[in-house]
Amino acid sequence: LDLETVLIKNLGRHSGQQITVEGWLYNRRSSGKIMFLIVRDGTGLLQGVVAKKEVGEEVFAKADQLTQESSLRLTGIVHEEPRSVGGYEMHVTNVEVIHIAQEYPITHKEHGVDFLAERRHLWIRTPRQTAILRVRSEIEHAFRDFFYQRDFVLADAPIITPAACEGTTTLFELDYHGEKAFLSQSGQLYSEANAMALGRIYCFGPTFRAEKSKTRRHLMEFWMIEAEMAFFDLEQNMRLQEDMVSYVVQRVLERCQNELKVLERDISKLENIKAPFPRISYTEAVEILNKAGEDFPWGEDFGAPHETIISSQFDRPVFVHRYPTAIKAFYMKPDPNDPKVVLGADLLAPEGYGEVIGGGQRIDDLALLEQRIAEHKLPVEAFEWYLDLRRYGSAPHSGFGLGLERTVAWICGLDHIRETIPFPRMLHKMYP
Ligand code: 4AD
Ligand code: MG
Q1: What share of residues in the chain are helix, strand, coil (percent, to 5)?
Q2: Predicted complex ipTM
Q3: For 261-272, how does the pLDDT look when each residue is reduced to its tens digit (9 = 90+)?
Q4: pTM
Q5: Is 147 a pocket residue for ligand 1 (Cβ < 6 Å)?
Q6: d(CA 327, CA 147)
Q7: Locate the Aminoacyl-transfer RNA synthetases class-II family profile domain: which residues (predicted)?
Q8: Using a 6 Å cutoff on CB, does residue 192 contact ligand 1?
Q9: In angstroms, what CA-CA distances link 338 with 236, 323, 334, 342, 357?
Q10: d(CA 131, CA 84)
């Protein structure tokens, strides 16, 4: 007898065996002598069939008290049962009640999103939410594997920083023993230093932006995968990104079939996601907008509706490169052939999910970088260390940052970013 509990997602390996599953009651039906317990363990759902004559009066009576979300241990023999949720069924020989839950607020009826958001700590137990969080976990592993296989070093960036990376309007300020400090908006500047030390690196950590707008794409705290490569130019940078995104999507297709089914994701849309991805310039993107009837002047930044129009022309993610210098960050390298634009590229996801990656080639010339820091009215003292990278063995280099939650929203096909992270931090909302 194997006493180790089995995860519901692995039941296929134990068909015909007596096993134990630990979990929570998801639903229950009873018809006097026979009871159907649907149990969830975070990996899937299992229907247990409990017969009074099999388990005895006492156990049956106890099981009859199980309320939704009560914790329990089920022992019995599992077998394939295509008509049953999850494809397996357990012929129960014992039910061990661990805790009888109080009346559970999230029932099987529809609930409004505000009601659910207030109870996010419980909402994450529902099958749809666990499917999303499992896909998120697979995506994180896939990114790490991708970089590990390519000899990138994981070099973590600090969270507490003395200066802005992505503009001063979205900084979260904090008091660092009497000194002003900020939560990191991006690990990039540190990643550049790490790339000059280690060659090819990535970091993966939480980043923070005090976004003033409430949208379905913005969180105040989100996770970013950022890579930085010494001696890479813009084209090499884009090639790495398309390989990475294709790899991650294919991994999810391979390993998260059940989750994608729960989410009712149209898989054919994901099957297209293979490198190479199309590349268009910002100027070409503006032409697409104007042809679509948008009165969009060259020089402005795209909003979400613009990104949707542009990306809807393609069946896979599209790179938009060479944005106007004036609307991009201070560190972006101007195109030597046309300094009005920078050697940067954003990757726009299909199906209206918008920008998932921002990246580009960095300025490697000391004087130009000093000039940009001044133009952006950034405090040069805070950037002396960063300027050092252009003083000692400056090298062309490029990198990018991918927003994890936007990527999860796209791959899972969600309407809103709030479901992509266990505990979202949104405008005026941080409970629980
Ligand atoms: O385009 P961004 O601002 O680029 C950077 O931060 C660069 N320093 C990255 C780099 O080159 N190392 O942000 C990168 C990505 C966006 O494309 C988007 O996917 C995500 O981060 N992002 C957000 N995701 C959720 N909520 C927000 N408020 C986000 N802001 C950016
Ligand atoms: Mg961006």
Answers
A1: 35, 30, 35
A2: 0.99
A3: 999 999 999 999
A4: 0.97
A5: no
A6: 30
A7: 133-432
A8: no
A9: 20, 11, 7, 8, 23
A10: 19
